[in-house]
Input
Amino acid sequence: MADSTDWRVTISLAGQEHAEQARHYLTTQEVEQDVRDRLGRSIVVGSGDSQIFLYAGTELAAAEAEQAARAALAQLGIQAQFAVHRWHPVEEEWESPDVALPRTEAERQAEHQRLEDAETAESISAGVAEWQARVELGSHREAVALAAKLDGEGYAVVRRWKFLIVGANNEDDAQAIADHIKQEAPPDAQVHAEASGMRLPFIPF
Output
C-alpha cells in the first residue's frame, strides 16, 4: 500500500502576499474536500515561504489535487507554477515521475550502491565527511574512555564532554561505524548514524 505522502504537488507562487492568500484558501479544506469527493481520498497540505505542497498517496490523487488547486487559484486570479514529484525511497529525494523506481532487489542494491558512491565522492570532493556516527554517553568519564578506545582502533574521534563524533563518507559507512561503537560503548549509550553536522575530514578508506 502506498504511503500517504509518496506523491507531492509543488505550487510555486510569486510574492509573499499571494503565497499567504493562496495558503489560506487552500488550507480551508476546499481542495482537500474536492479530491476526497472525486477519489474518496484526502490530501495533506504543507507550505514553505513561497511554496505550497499537496501530498497524496497515488499519482492519480496528486493529479486530481493539482487540478483542484489550479481551479481554486484561478478563481482568486493568482498565477502559480505547478510541479508533480514522487518520493524516491532509495535516493531519499523528491524526483520527477519519469525517474524509474528500482523493481527488483538487484536493481535496489545497484541504486543504493550508486547513491553511496555519490556520497563518498561528495565527501572526498568537499574534503569533509558528509555522514557521522554520534554517541551520547552517560558521563564525561565514559566519553573519555570510549574516545581513547576508538582512537586506539584508528578512528578519528571528536569529543565534546559526553558526546563523541566519528566522521564517515556515506550512510552505510556511518551505520557500520555506529554498529561497531554500540559493541564497544556502555549499554546505555545512545548511538546514531546521521548526516554530518560538523566539518570533519573525509575518511580515506
Observations:
- The helical segments are 16-26, 30-39, 59-76, 105-126, 140-152, 171-184.
